[in-house]
Amino acid sequence: MVRLAFTHNIGVYSAHTNFDQVEDGTADVLAQILELKEVSAVVPTQPGLGYGRVGNLEPSITLEDLLTTIQTRLAPSHLISSPVASLNQMISRVAVLGGSGASFLSAVVKTGAQAYLTSDCKFHQFQESRDRDLILIDAGHYATERPACDRLVQKFRSLNLDWVQLSQKDEDFRSFFRTP
Q1: What is the rounded distance in angstroms from the CA atom of residue 26 to the CA atom of residue 135?
Q2: CATH code of domain 17-158
Q3: Distance CA 153, CA 113 (A)
Q4: DSSP letters of 23-43?
Q5: Which of 16, 74, 117, 156 has a CB 3.0–4.6 Å from the CB of 143, allowing a cystine?
Q6: pLDDT tens for each residue of 28-82
Q7: pLDDT of 6 strictly over 70
Q8: Is residue 59 reached through a cis peptide bond, with omega within 30 degrees of 0 on the bond before it?
Q9: CA 92 to mean position of chain CA atoms
Q10: pLDDT at 150
C-alpha cells in the first residue's frame, strides 16, 4: 500500500494511538458527545493530554438515560453493559476511551467514574468491572472511534482540503444472531 501511494503521489495520514491522546481526539470527542463537564485525562501522558477522558454529567442522569444517550448519539449496532442492580441508579461521573480501552479498567476505577464507555471488552473484564462497582459499557470499536474520525475530516476540509475523505468501508464486524 505504501509503495502504491508513493508511486501515485498519494499522501497517507494514519493516526491511531496518538489520536487517542490529543485535544479533539478520540476520547475528547466522546466526552463532548456525552456533554461531560470538568473533563480530564484518565491516564495523563503530557500536560493536558492523555489516554481516555473522565468527567461529570450535570445534572446526573439515570443509567437507563445514559445508555439511551449512547445508543442515540453513537448508533452502535449493539450496546453491551455489565449487569447492574437498577437502570434507575443515578450516574454523575463517566469515563470514556474509544477503541479497545478495557485494559484501562484499573485507572478508570481510580478516577471515581461510575460508568465507563469503551469497546472490545471480554467476559472477565465485565466481571472485574462488576466487582469494582464500575458499569462497563461496550459500544463497539467502530462506534467509539468513528465520531472522532468524522471530526478530523471536517477539520481538514475547513482547510480547503476537499480531497480528504473518510473510508466508507469501515464497520462493526461483530454479528449478532437472534432467533425469531
Answers
A1: 20
A2: 3.40.1390.30
A3: 31
A4: TTSHHHHHHHHTT-EEEEEEE
A5: 74
A6: 999 999 999 999 999 999 888 899 999 999 999 999 999 999 999 998 888 888 8
A7: yes
A8: yes
A9: 18
A10: 75
Query: H-helix or E-strand containing 131?
Result: helix 123-131
The number of C-alpha atoms within 13 Å of 67 and in the hemisphere containing its C-beta is: 19
Residues 6+ apart with CB under 8 A from 42: 27, 50, 51, 52, 53, 54, 95, 97, 104, 107, 108, 111
List the grid coordinates of 175: 454479528
146-156 pLDDT per residue, tens: 877 777 777 77
Q: Which residue has the higher pLDDT, 82 or 93?
A: 93
Q: Collapsing DSSP states into helix, strand and coil, what is residue 174?
A: coil
CA contacts within 13 A on the Cβ side of 8: 7
Q: Note every long-range contact of 152-157, with CB atoms under 8 Å and residues 24 or more positions apart, other chains counting.
A: 152/15, 152/19, 152/24, 155/24
Kindly indicate the confidence band of residue 85, based on its pLDDT and cuts at 50, 70 and 90: confident
Length of the chain: 180
Say which residue the cell 476537499 belongs to.
Answer: 162
Higher-pLDDT residue of 35, 166? 35
Q: Does the structure show a pLDDT above 60 at 174?
A: no
